[in-house]
């Protein structure tokens, strides 16, 4: 049986990518996030809008392209997400 990622797992993957996998400090392009987080363009566009509006990501216009960086609030959220995810796994729960 194929196990699908939850919406929270996808958000965690996007935030982790913007925190860990960047080659420069300018941020991650949408194309980069699509590849690394394995999410379709239409879905990631919606998620990015929400993450920016909630203050978890910052939108940066660098050299004519739109890039995204994790904010301090996003770092705190990601840390709490990983902590809770580990806690839930210990009890056999999936989030």
Describe this structure in words.
By secondary structure, this protein is of the alpha+beta class. The protein has a single domain, classed as Orthogonal Bundle (Arc Repressor Mutant, subunit A), CATH 1.10.10. 57% of the residues lie in helices and 15% in strands. A three-stranded antiparallel sheet has the order 1-3-2. It starts with 6 loop residues before the first helix and ends in a 5-residue tail after the last helix. The model has no long low-confidence stretch (mean pLDDT 89).
Question: What is the topological layout?
Answer:
Elements: H1 7-20, E1 28-29, H2 30-37, H3 41-53, E2 57-62, E3 65-70, H4 72-90
Antiparallel strand pairs: 1-3, 2-3
């Amino acid at each position: 049986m194929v196990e699908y990622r939850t919406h929270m797992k996808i958000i965690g993957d996007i935030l982790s990518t913007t925190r860990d996998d960047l080659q420069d400090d300018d941020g991650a392009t949408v194309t980069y996030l699509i590849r690394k987080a394995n999410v379709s363009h239409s879905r990631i566009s919606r998620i990015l809008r929400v993450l920016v509006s909630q203050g978890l990501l910052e939108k940066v216009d660098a050299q004519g392209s739109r890039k995204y960086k994790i904010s301090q609030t996003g770092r705190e959220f990601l840390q709490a997400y990983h902590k809770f995810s580990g806690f839930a796994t210990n009890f056999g729960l999936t989030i």
